[in-house]
Amino acid sequence: METIRVSRAREFVNLLTRVFHFIFFAVGLRGKKKFWGVVYDSKSKQPLDPVIVKLITTGEEPEVQTCITDMKGRYGFLVTPGKYKIITKKTNYVFPSSRVTGSEDGDFKDLYHGEFFEVSGGSEVVAPNIPMDQITADWNQEAKAKVLKYKSFSNWLLRLTATFLFWTGFSLVLVFLGLDFWKNLAITQPGWLIVFCTYIFVFILNGIIPQTRLWGEVLDKNTRQPLSGLVLELKNPILPDLFMARTLTTEEGRFFLRVNPGSYALEIKTRDAGGQDLVLGRVRISVGSEALVNQTFWIDWQKGV
Amino acid sequence: MQEVKAMKKKALIVEDDGLLQNVLAKKMEFLGMEVLRANDGQAGYDLILREHPHIVLLDLMLPQMDGFQVLEAIRKYPDQEVAATKVIVLSNLWSAKDILGAKALKIEEYYVKNSADLDEVCRKALACTVQN
Questions:
Q1: CB–CB of A257/A234 below 8 Å?
Q2: How far is the C-alpha of A198 from the C-alpha of B13, rounded, in Å?
Q3: CB atoms < 10 A from the CB of A79, how many?
Q4: Closest Cα partner for A77 from A124, A113, A132?
Q5: How confident is the prediction along chain B (132 residues), in pLDDT tens digits per residue?
Q6: Cα–Cα distance between A79 and A265 in angstroms, integer?
Q7: Cis peptide leading into A237, omega within 30 of 0?
Q8: Which of A147, A173, A190 is a domain's end point?
Q9: CATH number for position A119
Protein backbone atom coordinates (compact mmCIF):
# COMPACT_ATOMS: atom_id res chain seq x y z
CA MET A 1 0.00 0.00 0.00
CA GLU A 2 1.57 3.24 -1.13
CA THR A 3 0.92 6.01 1.38
CA ILE A 4 3.78 8.40 0.55
CA ARG A 5 4.32 9.89 -2.86
CA VAL A 6 7.27 12.07 -3.80
CA SER A 7 6.23 15.12 -5.78
CA ARG A 8 7.73 14.57 -9.24
CA ALA A 9 6.98 18.20 -10.17
CA ARG A 10 9.04 19.42 -7.21
CA GLU A 11 11.84 16.98 -8.06
CA PHE A 12 11.86 18.36 -11.61
CA VAL A 13 12.00 21.95 -10.34
CA ASN A 14 14.84 20.98 -7.98
CA LEU A 15 16.72 19.36 -10.85
CA LEU A 16 16.27 22.39 -13.10
CA THR A 17 17.41 24.85 -10.44
CA ARG A 18 20.44 22.65 -9.74
CA VAL A 19 21.39 22.51 -13.45
CA PHE A 20 20.96 26.26 -13.93
CA HIS A 21 22.79 27.03 -10.73
CA PHE A 22 25.69 24.89 -11.91
CA ILE A 23 25.84 26.83 -15.20
CA PHE A 24 25.59 30.23 -13.49
CA PHE A 25 28.19 29.19 -10.94
CA ALA A 26 30.55 27.86 -13.63
CA VAL A 27 30.55 31.14 -15.55
CA GLY A 28 30.96 33.24 -12.42
CA LEU A 29 27.46 34.71 -12.29
CA ARG A 30 26.70 33.15 -8.92
CA GLY A 31 28.65 32.27 -5.83
CA LYS A 32 28.94 28.82 -4.35
CA LYS A 33 25.58 27.17 -3.81
CA LYS A 34 24.56 27.65 -0.20
CA PHE A 35 22.85 24.66 1.30
CA TRP A 36 24.35 24.73 4.75
CA GLY A 37 26.17 26.97 7.11
CA VAL A 38 29.74 25.95 7.77
CA VAL A 39 31.63 26.47 11.01
CA TYR A 40 35.26 26.87 10.04
CA ASP A 41 38.73 27.75 11.31
CA SER A 42 39.27 31.48 10.67
CA LYS A 43 42.95 30.92 9.85
CA SER A 44 43.17 27.60 7.99
CA LYS A 45 39.60 27.83 6.57
CA GLN A 46 39.20 24.17 7.48
CA PRO A 47 35.66 23.09 8.51
CA LEU A 48 35.34 22.30 12.22
CA ASP A 49 33.79 19.29 13.93
CA PRO A 50 32.41 18.48 16.36
CA VAL A 51 31.09 21.93 17.12
CA ILE A 52 28.06 22.32 19.36
CA VAL A 53 25.84 24.92 17.67
CA LYS A 54 23.01 26.40 19.70
CA LEU A 55 20.15 28.51 18.45
CA ILE A 56 18.81 30.72 21.22
CA THR A 57 16.05 33.26 21.41
CA THR A 58 14.86 35.89 23.85
CA GLY A 59 12.36 34.65 26.44
CA GLU A 60 12.01 32.28 29.33
CA GLU A 61 13.31 29.24 27.52
CA PRO A 62 16.06 30.72 25.40
CA GLU A 63 17.54 27.52 23.93
CA VAL A 64 15.54 26.60 20.85
CA GLN A 65 17.63 24.01 19.03
CA THR A 66 21.06 22.43 19.35
CA CYS A 67 23.01 20.48 16.79
CA ILE A 68 26.52 19.16 16.18
CA THR A 69 28.39 19.91 12.97
CA ASP A 70 29.31 17.04 10.68
CA MET A 71 32.78 16.21 9.34
CA LYS A 72 32.52 19.12 6.89
CA GLY A 73 31.51 21.61 9.57
CA ARG A 74 27.93 21.80 8.27
CA TYR A 75 24.84 22.67 10.27
CA GLY A 76 21.50 24.45 9.90
CA PHE A 77 18.22 25.20 11.69
CA LEU A 78 14.67 25.46 10.40
CA VAL A 79 13.11 28.26 12.43
CA THR A 80 9.75 30.00 12.76
CA PRO A 81 9.62 33.84 12.68
CA GLY A 82 11.27 35.46 15.69
CA LYS A 83 14.47 36.95 17.08
CA TYR A 84 17.42 34.61 17.38
CA LYS A 85 21.10 34.31 18.13
CA ILE A 86 23.57 31.49 17.40
CA ILE A 87 26.29 30.35 19.79
CA THR A 88 29.04 27.89 18.82
CA LYS A 89 31.27 25.92 21.16
CA LYS A 90 34.29 23.82 20.36
CA THR A 91 37.25 22.69 22.42
CA ASN A 92 40.39 24.72 21.65
CA TYR A 93 38.40 27.36 19.74
CA VAL A 94 36.66 30.63 20.59
CA PHE A 95 33.64 32.38 19.15
CA PRO A 96 33.12 35.05 17.93
CA SER A 97 36.23 35.33 15.82
CA SER A 98 38.44 38.37 16.30
CA ARG A 99 40.54 37.45 13.23
CA VAL A 100 37.68 37.50 10.72
CA THR A 101 35.16 40.24 11.47
CA GLY A 102 33.64 41.19 8.09
CA SER A 103 30.71 39.75 6.17
CA GLU A 104 32.85 37.79 3.68
CA ASP A 105 35.96 35.66 3.95
CA GLY A 106 37.09 34.26 0.58
CA ASP A 107 34.69 31.46 -0.38
CA PHE A 108 32.68 32.01 2.79
CA LYS A 109 29.91 34.60 2.42
CA ASP A 110 27.17 35.66 4.83
CA LEU A 111 29.37 35.45 7.93
CA TYR A 112 27.93 35.44 11.43
CA HIS A 113 29.58 36.92 14.53
CA GLY A 114 27.10 36.43 17.38
CA GLU A 115 24.57 39.22 16.89
CA PHE A 116 20.78 38.80 17.24
CA PHE A 117 18.88 38.52 13.95
CA GLU A 118 15.22 38.38 12.99
CA VAL A 119 13.39 35.86 10.84
CA SER A 120 10.12 37.06 9.35
CA GLY A 121 7.55 35.57 6.98
CA GLY A 122 7.32 31.75 7.02
CA SER A 123 9.65 29.25 8.64
CA GLU A 124 13.05 29.40 7.00
CA VAL A 125 16.43 27.70 7.22
CA VAL A 126 19.02 29.68 9.15
CA ALA A 127 22.56 28.68 8.31
CA PRO A 128 25.17 31.46 8.16
CA ASN A 129 28.86 30.62 7.92
CA ILE A 130 30.67 30.98 11.23
CA PRO A 131 34.42 31.56 11.69
CA MET A 132 36.07 30.50 14.97
CA ASP A 133 39.59 31.28 16.21
CA GLN A 134 41.91 28.51 17.35
CA ILE A 135 43.51 29.14 20.73
CA THR A 136 45.42 25.87 21.18
CA ALA A 137 46.36 22.92 18.96
CA ASP A 138 43.51 20.52 18.16
CA TRP A 139 44.38 16.89 17.45
CA ASN A 140 41.07 16.17 15.77
CA GLN A 141 41.47 18.94 13.20
CA GLU A 142 45.06 17.98 12.43
CA ALA A 143 44.10 14.32 11.94
CA LYS A 144 41.17 15.25 9.73
CA ALA A 145 43.29 17.54 7.55
CA LYS A 146 45.39 14.51 6.59
CA VAL A 147 42.47 12.40 5.39
CA LEU A 148 39.87 14.86 4.12
CA LYS A 149 40.22 16.99 1.03
CA TYR A 150 38.14 20.13 1.12
CA LYS A 151 39.01 21.89 -2.11
CA SER A 152 39.59 20.55 -5.59
CA PHE A 153 42.23 22.37 -7.64
CA SER A 154 40.89 20.93 -10.91
CA ASN A 155 37.37 22.20 -10.14
CA TRP A 156 38.75 25.62 -9.32
CA LEU A 157 40.74 25.68 -12.59
CA LEU A 158 37.73 24.56 -14.64
CA ARG A 159 35.57 27.26 -13.11
CA LEU A 160 38.22 29.91 -13.71
CA THR A 161 38.50 28.84 -17.38
CA ALA A 162 34.72 28.79 -17.91
CA THR A 163 34.35 32.21 -16.27
CA PHE A 164 37.16 33.66 -18.40
CA LEU A 165 35.66 32.28 -21.64
CA PHE A 166 32.15 33.48 -20.74
CA TRP A 167 33.15 37.06 -19.99
CA THR A 168 35.71 37.23 -22.82
CA GLY A 169 32.97 36.11 -25.21
CA PHE A 170 30.61 38.76 -23.88
CA SER A 171 33.27 41.47 -24.20
CA LEU A 172 34.02 40.41 -27.80
CA VAL A 173 30.33 40.50 -28.71
CA LEU A 174 30.03 44.02 -27.30
CA VAL A 175 33.15 45.18 -29.17
CA PHE A 176 32.06 43.70 -32.51
CA LEU A 177 28.50 45.01 -32.19
CA GLY A 178 29.86 48.43 -31.23
CA LEU A 179 32.25 48.53 -34.18
CA ASP A 180 29.54 47.37 -36.57
CA PHE A 181 27.16 50.05 -35.38
CA TRP A 182 29.91 52.72 -35.48
CA LYS A 183 30.87 51.91 -39.07
CA ASN A 184 27.42 51.29 -40.54
CA LEU A 185 25.06 53.06 -38.13
CA ALA A 186 23.15 49.77 -38.05
CA ILE A 187 23.66 46.12 -37.02
CA THR A 188 24.62 44.40 -40.26
CA GLN A 189 25.73 41.07 -38.79
CA PRO A 190 22.71 39.36 -37.18
CA GLY A 191 24.94 36.52 -35.87
CA TRP A 192 26.52 38.83 -33.29
CA LEU A 193 23.09 40.12 -32.35
CA ILE A 194 21.85 36.56 -31.71
CA VAL A 195 24.85 35.85 -29.48
CA PHE A 196 24.27 39.13 -27.64
CA CYS A 197 20.59 38.26 -27.09
CA THR A 198 21.61 34.83 -25.80
CA TYR A 199 23.84 36.50 -23.20
CA ILE A 200 20.98 38.80 -22.17
CA PHE A 201 18.69 35.74 -21.88
CA VAL A 202 21.23 34.05 -19.57
CA PHE A 203 21.48 37.20 -17.41
CA ILE A 204 17.66 37.35 -17.12
CA LEU A 205 17.46 33.64 -16.22
CA ASN A 206 20.09 34.19 -13.55
CA GLY A 207 17.93 36.95 -12.11
CA ILE A 208 14.67 35.02 -12.03
CA ILE A 209 15.67 31.43 -11.24
CA PRO A 210 15.82 31.13 -7.45
CA GLN A 211 18.36 29.27 -5.36
CA THR A 212 17.42 25.71 -4.48
CA ARG A 213 15.24 25.71 -1.40
CA LEU A 214 16.75 24.32 1.78
CA TRP A 215 13.66 22.72 3.27
CA GLY A 216 11.25 20.00 2.26
CA GLU A 217 7.57 19.66 3.09
CA VAL A 218 4.94 17.06 3.86
CA LEU A 219 1.42 17.62 2.54
CA ASP A 220 -1.85 15.74 2.78
CA LYS A 221 -2.59 14.23 -0.62
CA ASN A 222 -6.35 14.69 -0.30
CA THR A 223 -6.70 18.12 1.34
CA ARG A 224 -3.35 19.55 0.10
CA GLN A 225 -2.84 20.91 3.63
CA PRO A 226 0.55 20.83 5.40
CA LEU A 227 1.03 18.08 7.97
CA SER A 228 2.74 19.19 11.16
CA GLY A 229 4.34 17.24 13.99
CA LEU A 230 5.34 14.27 11.85
CA VAL A 231 8.65 12.53 12.46
CA LEU A 232 10.89 11.91 9.46
CA GLU A 233 13.68 9.37 9.82
CA LEU A 234 16.29 8.54 7.23
CA LYS A 235 17.75 5.06 7.35
CA ASN A 236 20.52 3.44 5.41
CA PRO A 237 18.86 0.62 3.40
CA ILE A 238 21.61 -1.82 4.34
CA LEU A 239 21.51 -0.78 8.01
CA PRO A 240 17.76 -0.58 8.69
CA ASP A 241 18.13 -0.45 12.46
CA LEU A 242 20.24 2.72 12.33
CA PHE A 243 18.74 6.09 11.56
CA MET A 244 21.08 8.58 9.92
CA ALA A 245 18.98 11.67 10.49
CA ARG A 246 15.71 12.61 12.13
CA THR A 247 13.54 15.69 12.12
CA LEU A 248 10.03 17.00 12.81
CA THR A 249 7.70 18.91 10.51
CA THR A 250 6.73 22.45 11.54
CA GLU A 251 3.21 23.88 11.55
CA GLU A 252 3.70 24.68 7.87
CA GLY A 253 4.57 21.04 7.20
CA ARG A 254 8.19 22.00 6.50
CA PHE A 255 11.28 20.17 7.64
CA PHE A 256 15.05 20.56 7.47
CA LEU A 257 16.82 17.26 7.05
CA ARG A 258 20.56 17.22 6.54
CA VAL A 259 22.34 14.04 5.66
CA ASN A 260 25.34 12.90 3.67
CA PRO A 261 24.93 11.99 -0.02
CA GLY A 262 23.62 8.48 -0.74
CA SER A 263 20.50 6.34 -0.99
CA TYR A 264 18.17 6.19 1.95
CA ALA A 265 14.88 4.78 3.14
CA LEU A 266 12.75 7.65 4.43
CA GLU A 267 10.21 6.71 7.08
CA ILE A 268 7.44 9.13 8.06
CA LYS A 269 5.78 8.54 11.41
CA THR A 270 3.12 10.06 13.57
CA ARG A 271 2.45 9.51 17.25
CA ASP A 272 -0.90 8.24 18.49
CA ALA A 273 -2.69 9.34 21.66
CA GLY A 274 -0.94 6.61 23.62
CA GLY A 275 2.48 7.91 22.62
CA GLN A 276 3.17 5.03 20.23
CA ASP A 277 4.83 5.71 16.89
CA LEU A 278 2.74 4.84 13.84
CA VAL A 279 4.63 4.43 10.58
CA LEU A 280 2.66 6.19 7.84
CA GLY A 281 4.88 4.93 5.08
CA ARG A 282 8.33 4.49 3.64
CA VAL A 283 9.90 5.72 0.45
CA ARG A 284 13.36 5.32 -1.13
CA ILE A 285 15.13 8.58 -1.89
CA SER A 286 18.53 9.68 -3.19
CA VAL A 287 20.46 12.56 -1.71
CA GLY A 288 22.97 14.33 -3.93
CA SER A 289 25.91 16.59 -3.26
CA GLU A 290 23.60 19.21 -1.76
CA ALA A 291 23.41 16.84 1.23
CA LEU A 292 19.85 17.60 2.22
CA VAL A 293 16.32 16.39 1.59
CA ASN A 294 14.17 19.14 0.07
CA GLN A 295 11.45 17.23 -1.74
CA THR A 296 7.71 17.53 -1.24
CA PHE A 297 6.10 14.37 0.11
CA TRP A 298 2.39 13.73 -0.31
CA ILE A 299 0.80 11.49 2.27
CA ASP A 300 -2.42 9.65 1.69
CA TRP A 301 -3.48 10.16 5.27
CA GLN A 302 -6.63 8.03 4.97
CA LYS A 303 -4.66 5.06 3.64
CA GLY A 304 -1.77 5.66 6.01
CA VAL A 305 -3.82 5.70 9.19
CA MET B 1 26.16 7.75 50.49
CA GLN B 2 28.60 4.97 49.76
CA GLU B 3 25.67 2.64 49.25
CA VAL B 4 24.20 4.98 46.66
CA LYS B 5 27.55 5.16 44.89
CA ALA B 6 27.86 1.39 44.93
CA MET B 7 24.54 1.11 43.10
CA LYS B 8 25.53 3.59 40.44
CA LYS B 9 26.25 2.23 36.99
CA LYS B 10 29.70 3.07 35.74
CA ALA B 11 30.04 4.68 32.30
CA LEU B 12 33.24 5.51 30.47
CA ILE B 13 33.32 8.29 27.86
CA VAL B 14 36.22 8.02 25.42
CA GLU B 15 36.14 11.31 23.50
CA ASP B 16 39.00 13.63 22.58
CA ASP B 17 36.79 16.71 22.37
CA GLY B 18 36.65 18.02 25.92
CA LEU B 19 33.51 20.06 25.43
CA LEU B 20 31.46 17.19 24.03
CA GLN B 21 32.89 14.95 26.72
CA ASN B 22 31.64 17.43 29.37
CA VAL B 23 28.18 17.68 27.86
CA LEU B 24 27.83 13.89 27.73
CA ALA B 25 29.22 13.48 31.26
CA LYS B 26 26.73 15.98 32.70
CA LYS B 27 23.82 14.27 31.00
CA MET B 28 24.94 10.84 32.21
CA GLU B 29 25.48 12.07 35.74
CA PHE B 30 22.00 13.58 35.64
CA LEU B 31 20.72 10.10 34.83
CA GLY B 32 22.45 8.84 37.97
CA MET B 33 25.52 7.24 36.42
CA GLU B 34 29.09 7.41 37.63
CA VAL B 35 31.19 8.79 34.78
CA LEU B 36 34.82 8.08 33.92
CA ARG B 37 36.54 9.98 31.13
CA ALA B 38 39.38 9.40 28.70
CA ASN B 39 40.76 11.80 26.09
CA ASP B 40 42.40 9.21 23.86
CA GLY B 41 42.04 5.57 22.85
CA GLN B 42 44.95 4.27 24.92
CA ALA B 43 43.70 5.93 28.10
CA GLY B 44 40.21 4.59 27.36
CA TYR B 45 41.52 1.06 26.87
CA ASP B 46 43.50 1.23 30.12
CA LEU B 47 40.40 2.42 32.01
CA ILE B 48 38.30 -0.40 30.56
CA LEU B 49 40.82 -2.97 31.82
CA ARG B 50 41.12 -1.32 35.23
CA GLU B 51 37.59 -0.10 35.98
CA HIS B 52 35.38 -2.57 34.10
CA PRO B 53 32.72 0.04 33.19
CA HIS B 54 29.16 -1.15 32.58
CA ILE B 55 29.02 0.84 29.36
CA VAL B 56 31.56 2.65 27.16
CA LEU B 57 30.68 5.59 24.93
CA LEU B 58 33.39 5.48 22.30
CA ASP B 59 34.45 7.94 19.60
CA LEU B 60 36.24 6.45 16.58
CA MET B 61 38.68 9.21 15.60
CA LEU B 62 40.97 9.30 18.62
CA PRO B 63 44.65 9.99 19.35
CA GLN B 64 47.01 7.13 20.37
CA MET B 65 44.61 4.28 19.54
CA ASP B 66 41.57 4.87 17.35
CA GLY B 67 38.15 3.57 18.34
CA PHE B 68 38.37 0.51 16.08
CA GLN B 69 41.67 -0.50 17.68
CA VAL B 70 40.15 -0.12 21.14
CA LEU B 71 37.18 -2.28 20.14
CA GLU B 72 39.39 -4.96 18.59
CA ALA B 73 41.69 -5.02 21.62
CA ILE B 74 38.90 -5.46 24.15
CA ARG B 75 37.06 -8.10 22.10
CA LYS B 76 40.28 -10.15 21.91
CA TYR B 77 41.13 -9.69 25.58
CA PRO B 78 41.38 -13.00 27.47
CA ASP B 79 39.26 -11.86 30.43
CA GLN B 80 35.65 -12.58 29.39
CA GLU B 81 34.26 -9.68 31.39
CA VAL B 82 36.48 -7.22 29.52
CA ALA B 83 35.85 -8.91 26.17
CA ALA B 84 32.09 -8.56 26.68
CA THR B 85 32.20 -4.85 27.62
CA LYS B 86 29.19 -3.06 26.23
CA VAL B 87 30.09 -0.26 23.83
CA ILE B 88 28.09 2.45 22.13
CA VAL B 89 29.88 4.24 19.30
CA LEU B 90 29.33 7.99 18.88
CA SER B 91 31.25 9.25 15.88
CA ASN B 92 30.96 11.63 12.95
CA LEU B 93 32.13 8.87 10.61
CA TRP B 94 29.03 7.94 8.66
CA SER B 95 30.00 5.60 5.81
CA ALA B 96 28.43 2.14 5.71
CA LYS B 97 31.98 0.71 5.80
CA ASP B 98 32.73 2.40 9.13
CA ILE B 99 29.35 1.56 10.62
CA LEU B 100 29.43 -2.08 9.52
CA GLY B 101 33.05 -2.33 10.70
CA ALA B 102 32.05 -1.16 14.17
CA LYS B 103 28.94 -3.34 14.23
CA ALA B 104 31.06 -6.38 13.37
CA LEU B 105 32.84 -5.72 16.65
CA LYS B 106 29.62 -6.29 18.56
CA ILE B 107 28.64 -2.81 19.64
CA GLU B 108 25.29 -2.03 21.22
CA GLU B 109 24.51 0.95 19.02
CA TYR B 110 26.10 3.32 16.53
CA TYR B 111 25.21 7.01 16.57
CA VAL B 112 26.37 9.59 14.06
CA LYS B 113 27.23 12.70 16.07
CA ASN B 114 25.74 15.25 13.74
CA SER B 115 22.34 13.56 13.69
CA ALA B 116 22.29 12.12 17.20
CA ASP B 117 20.14 13.36 20.05
CA LEU B 118 22.62 13.36 22.94
CA ASP B 119 19.86 12.81 25.51
CA GLU B 120 18.80 9.72 23.60
CA VAL B 121 22.41 8.49 23.45
CA CYS B 122 22.71 8.81 27.22
CA ARG B 123 19.35 7.14 27.83
CA LYS B 124 20.46 4.27 25.59
CA ALA B 125 23.70 4.00 27.58
CA LEU B 126 21.72 3.77 30.81
CA ALA B 127 19.37 1.19 29.29
CA CYS B 128 22.38 -0.93 28.30
CA THR B 129 23.66 -0.91 31.87
CA VAL B 130 20.26 -1.96 33.19
CA GLN B 131 20.43 -5.01 30.92
CA ASN B 132 23.72 -5.98 32.57
A1: yes
A2: 61
A3: 18
A4: A124
A5: 444 455 789 999 999 999 999 999 999 999 999 999 999 999 999 999 999 999 999 999 999 999 999 999 999 999 999 999 999 999 988 888 898 999 999 999 999 888 888 998 999 999 999 865
A6: 25
A7: no
A8: A147
A9: 2.60.40.1120
- Dmax over CA atoms of chain B, in Å, equals 46
Domain assignment of residue A77, given as a range = 37-147
Rounded distance between C-alpha atoms, residue A87 and residue B103, angstroms:
34
Q: What is the CATH number of the domain that holds B102?
A: 3.40.50.2300
Task: Give B-chain residues touching A71 at CB under 8 angstroms.
Answer: 92-94, 114
Claim to verify: residue A133 and residue A191 sit in the same structural domain: no
What is the tally of structural domains in chain A? 3
Min Cα separation A285/chain B (Å): 17
Say if the Cβ atoms of A140 and B115 lie within 8 Å. no
Q: DSSP H helical segments within chain B, as ranges?
A: 2-7, 18-30, 41-51, 67-75, 80-83, 96-103, 118-130
pTM: 0.76
What ipTM was reported for this prediction? 0.81
Which residue out of A49, A69, A71, A75 would a mutagenesis test of the B interface target, given it has the greatest number of B Cβ atoms within 10 Å? Answer: A71
User: How far away is chain B from the Cα of A195, in angstroms, using its nearest Cα?
Assistant: 47
